[in-house]
Amino acid sequence: MGRKAAAPLAGRTGRPPGFARTDAVDAAMNLFWKKGFRAVSASDLADAMSIQRSSFYNSFGSREQVFREALQRYAGQTPDAPLYRVRPGEAVVPILVSVLRDICRVRAADPGARGCLVCNGIAELVGVEKTIGPLLEDAMANMAGAVERLLRQAVQRKELTLPTDAATAAKSFVAFLIGLNTISKVVRSERQLWAMCRPFLRGLGVPGEALGARA
Amino acid sequence: MGRKAAAPLAGRTGRPPGFARTDAVDAAMNLFWKKGFRAVSASDLADAMSIQRSSFYNSFGSREQVFREALQRYAGQTPDAPLYRVRPGEAVVPILVSVLRDICRVRAADPGARGCLVCNGIAELVGVEKTIGPLLEDAMANMAGAVERLLRQAVQRKELTLPTDAATAAKSFVAFLIGLNTISKVVRSERQLWAMCRPFLRGLGVPGEALGARA
DNA sequence: ATCGTTCTGGACATATCTGTCCAGAACCTG
DNA sequence: CAGGTTCTGGACAGATATGTCCAGAACGAT
Questions:
Q1: Angstrom distance, B39 CA to D5 C1'
Q2: Residue A96's closest CA among A33, A169, A179?
């Protein structure tokens, strides 16, 4: 098996790993994403990483640990990432809309129809898996918090009129996102998915004109 | 182990089962519901049913088969069942509202915080498990179909004004239901869950007055 | 080139799961 | 109560998972 360029770590001695950790975590992420956490064994992971099972245990220690790392890596590529990067004073509604659009686009474009790694994980692991469940709960709470701030900002800027308090509306938004991501495993048309978002946005008080514009 | 009353099957000869099949399926359902399909082994099922593993294989054949029966049993107790029982001419909005309320109530009251068996299954199995995945897809499609008919009826009766076609609005409703059920594993307050429904109902065009009334 | 360190391949012991099989117990029928 | 049928307990073989261990290969540093 040919050596793959390992990151040329600075003052490190000894034999370097025969694989790039980043690539390995990516492979793990894709596997977890496709099959779910419980359906993936340590052997599966080692295979996907093209390394020996012992090297896997040596480098990662456990399935849980890799999943944690995969989750972080996933956070860097998920279509809802922009929700966490809105600055005070910035327009909010276009962001909300474009995030929804991106979700529809990305999920429909995924040939594996895998939905969202975090949403799948919540359904599968929260309340069941002691180490990872709480992690996913946190991820969800973070998102709800971020959306809540966004909605406050939007109301303050008079971009929309909420039918409830911001915290509740934010949780409602998150719930819809989870549902949308989940159903995207079955509803495979981007157009259809996006059309499904319209009722919800209307409920949030987003004016109809905001829906046509690309962000 | 004391014999449990088996169903007194009519002209049946031979030794009767030492357990009631219905109870056994219920036990299986609760286990699947709590831990997910993959996390439950044949031994777990046999234990939950208080029978021998061989008796389990003898009576059910496979995990998949029990899951199928558990699903049917679940269908008889799920809070969204009323969606399938609306008659032509009947008022629709009160049903939609009360179903949502019931979901909030039932999910919050479940001490196991298990969410919805079908929704969990969709996230875990669709696109992964060959025999059960399609089953769950069907369940979802059925629901979307039922809701679509309901929405048409509601529009015809001028109970609400949809922002899109009925088929899309129905899928949107289903997506929200999935999200609501899933998030109910984390958001444990009935009141909070119900409040989260308000934005979505507004988006569907349900007038605010309809939300206060109990069904 | 040699030394010290780190990674790799492969093996080991243990645990759990799966599906099947059968002798004997339990039961209904006549 | 005898005969036929069906269920139960327990065992079996094969597959797969887990976590650990170590001899030796591969490499950076000197």
A1: 36
A2: A169
| Cα–Cα distance measured from residue B155 to residue B170, given in angstroms and rounded to the nearest whole number | 12
> How near does any CA of chain A get to the CA of B95, in Å?
19
Cα(B38)–Cα(A119) distance, integer angstroms: 17
Q: How far is the CA of B114 from the C1' of D6 (A)?
A: 37
Whole-model pTM: value is 0.93
- Find which nucleotide's C1' atom is closest to B64's CA: C18
Alpha carbon of B33: minimum distance to chain A alpha carbons (Å): 10
Q: Are B53 and B35 in contact (CB under 8 A)?
A: no
Provide the token pair at B138: 């069907």
Cα A182 to its chain centre, rounded Å, is 12
CB contact under 8 A, A168 and B198: yes
Q: How far is A58 from chain B (nearest CA, A)?
A: 26
Buried b (16+ CB within 10 A) or exposed e, A110-143: beeebbbbbbbbbbbbbbbbeebbebbbebbeeb
Q: Pick B195's closest partner by Cβ from A114, A141, A164.
A: A164
How far is it, in rounded angstroms, from Cα B43 to Cα B78?
A: 27
* Distance in angstroms (rounded) separating the CA atoms of residues A109 and B118: 25
The residue behind tokens 């245990």 is A57
b/e sequence B106-143, b meaning 16+ C-beta within 10 Å = bbbebeeebbbbbbbbbbbbbbbbeebbebbbebbeeb
- The CA distance from A65 to A56, in Å, is 11
Contact by Cβ (8 Å): B118, B140 = yes
Task: Compute the count of residue pairs across chains A and B with CB atoms less than 8 Å apart.
Answer: 170
Kindly report, residue by residue over A60-81, the tens digit of the pLDDT. Answer: 999 999 999 999 999 999 999 9
- pLDDT tens, residue by residue, B136-188: 999 999 999 999 999 999 999 999 999 999 999 999 999 999 999 999 999 99
